[in-house]
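**User:**
My hope is that you can spare some time for a protein that puzzles me. This is the protein in question:
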Amino acid sequence: MPFGVYIHVPFCSRRCDYCAFATWTDRHNLMASYAAACVQEAGSGRLAPATSVYFGGGTPSLLPAELLCSMLATVPRTPAAEVTVECNPETVSASALEAYRAAGVTRLSFGVQSMVPHVLRSLGRAHDPEHVGRAVSLARRVGFDTFNLDLIYGATGETLQDWDASLDAVLALEPPHVSAYALTVEPGTPLAADARRHPDDDDQAVKYLAAEKALSIAGLANYEISNWARPGHECRHNLLYWAQGDYRGIGCAAHSHVDGRRWWNVRTPERYIATVEAGRSPVAAGEHIDGPTRRLEELQLALRTRTGVPEAALAEDDPALDGLVCRVAGRAVLTVEGRLLANEVALRLRSQAADGLRPAGARRREGVGMKQ
């Protein structure tokens, strides 16, 4: 059975204005003790062999490679396990990538966000477009044939021409996988506090359609609302989330889900380290997901993917769904227009087990390694 392990790395060189994740720029002195605590938590957790492991954050590639590899060594894995490390382009080095490869890392995810300098500045990113090409070249030279280039659209000052330029520059690198996420306003962030910088829904819709067209022409197929890949290069770890699979989270703020129970660790790295070193559980809280809620969440997640939901989950005679859903072989699948209105379609999901419940919407949840 698929089983994932997520390892949260909370260190960053700078914090982007749109980021609400559990990350810090002034705790680099904790790196060694944090990695040791993660090793201890993973070692005491009696983990099942993982079919996928995901290092997210934060910026995992900021960690000295030997620390990241020591954490990975603690996680039992199946022989063909997918192991992903998120990297910022400016932090990539040949020696680190070689160490990752030797330790069993199979996949890299580069936080590109944009290939236009002024848009990168608007997003608060530290790299230049040239760093992206260098990082991809190093990855291929070391032997990584599966990697992701991660984009964000909708930043202040980003024109449609800028977005087209980013898509063209990324596709020129011939990536096997591209993610394109709409810039989201998260409560408590500097972006949230400045309404002048909030993205425009219509602008983002136009840019999403541009991404769908450009990526499809380039041979990358959409397999989840924000993700496109060449055959065989889909992210198996994220597919596990969308299938409502089981996973364990290691590290501060990391979330876990096993057999309908969710729980999450304490948020700050200091508390996490102190708790683990004292031999106590780092779990901060949890919840049990009852049957109806679990079924509804399963449908919400599946609706985002190219396989969709059982046809009966959406009424056939609902005029609000016209043009938003196509029905094929007993499944209801979002059209391109339906992807733009996925939350509205999700409001119409139904199941006997979940009768009367309303979906909470697909939210970005830190500590699971999946952006939405």
Q: What stands out?
A: The chain has two domains: 3-241, 293-346. The longest strand covers residues 77-87. Residues 352-372 have pLDDT under 50 and may be disordered. Residues 293-346 form one domain.
